[in-house]
Amino acid sequence: YSGAFVCLEILLGGLVWILVASSNVPLPLLQGWVMFVSVTAFFFSLLFLGVFLSGMVTQIDANWNFLDFAYHFTVFVFYFGAFLLEAAATSLHDLHCNSTITYGVQPLLNDNQYNINVAATVFAFMTTACYGCSLCLALRRWRP
Fold first, then answer.
1. Among 31, 43, 64, 114, who pairs with 93 as Cys (CB 3.0-4.6 Å)?
2. Would you report the helix, strand and coil content of the chain in percent, each value rounded to 5?
3. pLDDT tens-digit profile, the chain (144 residues)
4. CA 85 – CA 103 distance, rounded (Å)
């Protein structure tokens, strides 16, 4: 069990959550999934770490190596998709749309939202990489 990677997953996933939320989610169709995955993974990773740190692993009769693998596989797949969607949302910076409020053509993302989304994309990639490393370690523990 690699607690260091889980701590990094929690830290970096929390940063993704904070950054996407601070951009005011200008593209809810794309970034809604990113918010869902980052918030859900943050809380389940905290719960997962708490179970291992509290010693409940020895009290609950389960195949923890398989559960560790299954959890990290699922979250890795979801976070990879969230990373791709966040990168897609960030790439729409130069796309212009008509705005009826200001009666002109406005960029889809302003410069501040673009910068925040770039940081969120980088941290989403780093979080995905941490979940991938945890997945590899869990696979090595699960398979003899």
1. 114
2. 80, 5, 15
3. 577 889 999 999 999 999 999 987 777 777 889 999 999 999 999 998 998 889 888 888 888 889 999 999 999 999 999 999 999 888 877 665 555 555 555 556 778 888 998 999 999 999 999 999 999 999 998 886
4. 29
Euclidean distance between CA atoms 131 and 8, whole angstroms: 9
Distance of alpha carbon 120 from alpha carbon 34, whole angstroms: 10
Q: How far apart are CA 86 and CA 29, in angstroms?
A: 11
99: helix, coil or strand?
A: strand
Residue where the block lists tokens 């705005």: 99
